[in-house]
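lol ok so funny story. i was supposed to be doing the assay writeup but got distracted and ended up predicting the structure for this chain instead. priorities right. anyway since i did it might as well share w the group, maybe its usefull for someone
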Amino acid sequence: MAIRHDAPIPDPDISSTKGREQRERVPRTVHADLADRPVGFDPVQVLIDQGAGRVQSLLPVRYGRMAADRFSFLRGAAAVMAADIANGPSSELTVQLCGDAHLSNFGVFRSPERRLVFDVNDFDETHPGPFEWDVKRLAASIAVAAESLNLTAGQQERAVLAAVGEYRSTMRTFAAAKDLDVWYAHFDIESNLGALGKRLSDEAMRRTGNMMAKAKTKDSRKAYDKLVEIVDGRPQIKADPPLVVPIADLAMPPESGGPDSVYDFLFRILTGYGETLPYDRQQLLTHFTPIDAARKVVGVGSVGTRCFVVLTLGRDGDDPFFLQVKEATASVLEPYLGASVFATPGQRVVAGQQITQATPDAFLGWFSEPTPPDQELRHFYVRQLYDGKASADVASFDADLLTDYVMICGWTLARAHARSGDRIAIASYLGKTDTFDRSIASFALAYRDRNRRDHKALVDAISSGRVTAENA
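and the output, tada:
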């Protein structure tokens, strides 16, 4: 940072003016519009094209999971929705986007201080872009989830309005806050239980308590008990194909060197990944010995990317520690917002998470490595497996619970955006009235209907044999 003795004193009014000027260029009411798709746009083909670089044998699992219901389809169709949003109006108020801010990508995990915090927790698609792109993704997911709960049209709209209204009011609060206060703001669930109790229903508080209890049990010991068996006195990750395939069971052509080359590949990843950690974490990582690894299917949209879990041991056989190695590819937003400034997709994901999350994973890092069996250079990021991670069971919510929950998500997304964007300009653009809220609600309900048609298109493609689906 260059120091200038004549540097101008920061003036919030400049940002406020910027926000008001954006209102003139992109009126808040235009966000209600769901732009028509280009002639010939095929959502199923978007998914097929996206699978080109993935593990082909796992794509039927992806299609099966997406076809299960409309919300699952939305979760896996980030590329489809990115194309739709990019085709509509956009502001010039840039933040570090989560890129895939649907309801299931919010949840609980442990901070490095071992406190349970609530935050956005998936950054595979993170990229700088207009703040409202994340808001639209969240709002549409609320509408789709509310529809799946058989809520009335009015209840669906109220849930979306609650989330967007909370986003807007929170952004105004952060616009008036000092920079460091914004940076350190986080949602510590345990510390905020008292305040939550004043806002949430008794049932919502009960569910919160249950989610916290579940999160506290999700650690490496829990993962060990679930994933590992003892064979000839040594711990090994149990096979559950195609969802969990131990490294030793992966089919490898002879010229690749067989399973040993995969072990070498993972060892190189851990070694190289460690170099991206802060020095103290590098030293801590050396305390753990890699024991076994497996390819593991995760999520919905990520199915088919190369994801591994790695079992390491600390002081002895009763000190397990799991890492998740996840393939990173270009963000679905890059075709519309430009290529990432980072050298690799893995670094992009890590940087986006560190910018956006208040308390990112202490073991977050990245690496690139030629990958067996074809030895193509692929990119990965690494994080802890489990470590207190838990998410709400939205499928069991009623209208009141959903409204309570999405307000917390709205607060969280505003806090995430306030860390990287011009929060004063965004707050000025949003304003004091609910004009923006109602526009986004209209968009969300229209997208709910489009998502319903897209889901049917996938189901029809499966029925016709265009794509193959597997229930796993």
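Residues 435-464 form the longest helix (30 residues). The chain has a mean pLDDT of 90.
back to the writeup now i swear
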